[in-house]
Amino acid sequence: MWISxxxxxxxxxxxxxxxxxxxxxxxxxxxxxxxxxxxxxxxxVKKNSTTKFDESIDVSLKINLKQSKGGxxxxxxxxxxxxxxxxxxxxxxxCEPSKIEEAKKAGADIAGSDDLIEKIASGKFDFTxxxxxxxxxxxxGKYGKVLGPKGLMPNPKLGTxxxxxxxxxxxxKTGLVEIRNDKDGNLASTIGRKSFSTEKLxxxxxxxxxxxxxxxxxTIKGELIKGTYITSTMGISYRIGVK
Length: 243
What we know:
By secondary structure, the protein is an alpha+beta fold. Helices cover 28% and strands 23% of the residues.
């Protein structure tokens, strides 16, 4: 590491990494200071997805948080994409001992009762979504500080507290995605993979946008969505024009 001392200031020299040939190539497809249609953006994003793995196609929104009454809007919900998300999830189900076999038959990767709670309490768990039956919520509630920061705490509004294990597991294994905004009004979600056809991605995109619009409360003036962008895991983003 190179250290310099100029006018009494001692600092580190930062060596910037050069862009890869792949990234420089897709930069030629960038569009500045112009909004394009969702279909045009999806065609370009798929064209730019030149990595060997099946890149995620993502939509990012800037939403209007300011309500005319009360505090800022906090949007948190689930959207069931018509063509699925293509995202693989490891589903755990916390249930009564008598329902463990039912959960496994429903497709759960992990199913347990008090034994699963012990793993959660120790912090040693490796699932990406936790579904819980209502009767087990009383036992898991005190572990909110462990599960909450990871976005794993079961919530009835998000479909992760359920008596219908077959439906809940299937929903999260296929197209159900959870969305929530941050404090700056940013909201992002996957809408599929590069292996999806443009038509399927466009259908997912339109369904996602309409689902978010339906969450607009009466206390928000003007449009809920202020900006929309589409990108891929290793690609560049495109700003979408409003119809």
